[in-house]
Design a protein that fits this description.
2 copies of one chain form a homodimer. Chain A has 250 residues and is mainly α. The first copy, chain A, has 2 domains: 68 residues, Arc Repressor Mutant, subunit A (Orthogonal Bundle); 147 residues, Up-down Bundle (Four Helix Bundle (Hemerythrin (Met), subunit A)). The first copy, chain A, contains 9 helices and 3 strands, in the order H-E-H-H-E-E-H-H-H-H-H-H. The first copy, chain A, is globular. The N and C termini of chain A lie far apart (39 Å). The structure holds a DNA duplex (30 and 30 nucleotides). Chains A, B: InterPro entries: GntR_C (IPR011711), TF_FadR/GntR_C (IPR008920), Tscrpt_reg_HTH_GntR (IPR000524), WH-like_DNA-bd_sf (IPR036388), WH_DNA-bd_sf (IPR036390). Chains A, B: Keywords: DNA-binding, Transcription, Transcription regulation. Chains A, B: Pfam families: FCD (PF07729), GntR (PF00392).
Chain lengths: 250, 250
DNA sequence: CGAATCGGCAATGTATACATAGCTGACCGA
DNA sequence: TCGGTCAGCTATGTATACATTGCCGATTCG
């Protein structure tokens, strides 16, 4: 009846800003508390497609799947439902949500609004020299990736760049909100990744936003990053629309 | 051992847009499921100050307070913690969070970014005639309230106007996110309400935003509402700073 | 043959039981 | 007297038990 594993570490991880993307990686899964374990594990499976959209499972089944009792699983499921990754239908189990095109658009709208604000705040706070260097290196690498046609690598770096700037915004609540919505767009992004054209425009826009950030110009940063997001979001929606004919799951 | 009350109604209220603010009113509290009951009840008590910042209670005490078992109370508390209204310290109970000036600033930053986006979307969708009429009436009433110096009434209408426009944005996720952050700024707003000068500027800005909305001009709406929020947020922060000397609770 | 109602069943929501971990305070040793 | 360690207690986290609710299917009536 030992509830959790060895449980050597703290579970209450309200740490400092933490720039890490809320991404699949799932290293120290065994050393978390059960609730967190359930949450991260399920989230991971959903985001990577291991639990496909439409999949429906009972709370009991999930608990069995994770070797836990229903209580922590249930708490994790509630959280996932609040994030919009699953839907709980009272008598029918929890279903991994399929993202319609409209859902994806809605998510991007929220996500972009938040990210632009984060960029603004970062601009206002100003970048330290080491931040400038690090971000600059990322942009260099992205351009390299573009040059050699490695769009997967490019996409990773893109995420990293964005989340790095967000991490510098100094507003923990904003960051948390962004992370939640980030998770939702991730699946769709993955899907259309291979379809994307080489992101020359994005590279240019990044450079231009970066310049505004360096200059500490909030208004300019807002304007430029907003334009970038608008265009990129539209492009992504187009790709998605084309790739699933407006009906499909992500 | 009867879990919930008569429970005549649905708890899975993923209904249509619903313009209702997530406000204290708490009518049909008895007919909800226990978890929702706990959540709304606690939230109500916190937002209205009945549970003052700094108050610390054990899960058991909360359960007793609400005449429920720990399970639904715990789930509600987790939700409140995610919203940032309380803090759960593993061995010390749940504490109603005090909002520092910085917290309040952070909250406003997120809230404003989201609200501006919602206004943009509403502009893009366009207002129906009845919406125009309703919103117009609200603005009239607000100006009346200003004229007779009824700032409480003005503030209610202000909330109503904003949430009404948000409700028309057509993005449920955005609305949900806004509501969560709305709850957090509410307490501080209440506090500074009596200190506010008569909001002539706000009235003008509302009119101007309203015009942009009517025109269906997304960019203009963004610009104007963003300016409004910027100014209003700054003003509120100033008032708060003055009223509690930068340390205090809200 | 179709539709409506009733009964059984199973999944959830809630309550409770239980075990662990961390804090408090006391006692012992220096 | 002060500091350190250990033991006990209590709050939480997890597991389990239990009751309700709502669906599905079967049966019966029109």
């Amino acid at each position: 009846m030992r509830p959790a594993e060895p449980t050597g570490s703290r579970k209450n991880d309200r740490g400092k800003p933490r720039s890490s993307r809320p991404v699949p990686s799932l290293q120290g899964l065994t050393e978390m508390a059960a609730r967190e374990r359930a949450y991260h594990d399920l989230r991971y499976r959903i985001l990577t497609g291991r639990l496909a959209p439409g999949t429906t499972l009972l709370e009991t089944e999930l608990a069995a799947l994770l070797s836990l009792s229903r209580t922590p699983v249930r708490e994790a499921v509630i959280k996932l439902a609040e994030e919009g990754l699953v839907e709980v239908r009272p008598r029918h189990g929890v279903t991994v949500k399929a993202l319609s095109l409209q859902d994806f658009g809605n998510i991007l709208d929220v996500f972009s609004a938040l990210e632009v604000r984060a960029f603004e705040l970062t601009a206002e706070r100003g970048l330290r020299i080491e931040d400038v260097r690090r971000l600059g290196r990322m942009l260099d690498e992205m351009e390299n990736a573009t040059a050699v046609g490695d769009i997967t690598r490019w996409s990773e770096l893109d995420d990293e760049f964005h989340s790095e700037v967000v991490a510098l915004c100094g507003n923990q609540r904003l960051q948390t909100a962004i992370n939640a919505f980030w998770g939702q767009q991730y699946r769709a992004r993955l899907m259309i990744l291979p379809l994307r054209p080489m992101p020359v425009e994005s590279n240019d826009e990044h450079r231009s936003t970066f310049a505004a950030l360096q200059a500490g110009d909030r208004a300019l940063t807002r304007e430029r990053h907003n334009a970038h997001r608008d265009r990129a979001d539209r492009q992504q929606l187009d790709l998605l629309r084309r790739s699933l004919g407006s009906n499909g799951l992500a």
